[in-house]
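Q: Hi! Curious about what Ribbon-helix-helix protein CopG domain-containing protein looks like structurally. Here's the sequence.
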Amino acid sequence: MGKDLKHTTVRLSEDERAGLDKRRKREGGTRSAHIRLAVHRYLNTEPPELSPKVLERLNLLEQALAPLGSNLNQIARRLNQFKADGLNVGDLEDVQGDLLDLFTDMRDEMIEVQDELTEQLRLR
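A: Let's find out. The predicted structure is below.
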């Protein structure tokens, strides 16, 4: 090992390690050499440019998701307070249904954006 190389531990799944070993045996070299090559390629590859449509949708998703975390924390605090005060939380089932609908819509939108990104990257 050269003086300028530093020891780093990398955790891989069984499938990742098997794939690495298969390629290593086919092409020769050590695991370390193949991992260094993958890191080198990653560091020297520019991320793809996204289309304006995808960037706009990602921006809208980000704007929609940002306040959700805050709202969820507020809701959780209030529900916990209702429970602590011994109040009936059954009246909140409508709110729970509305939240579920909102999250379902957000999930569907994120899946659409993911599909668009996948398609855009595949076309490159």
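A: A fun detail: The chain has two domains: 1-45, 52-122.
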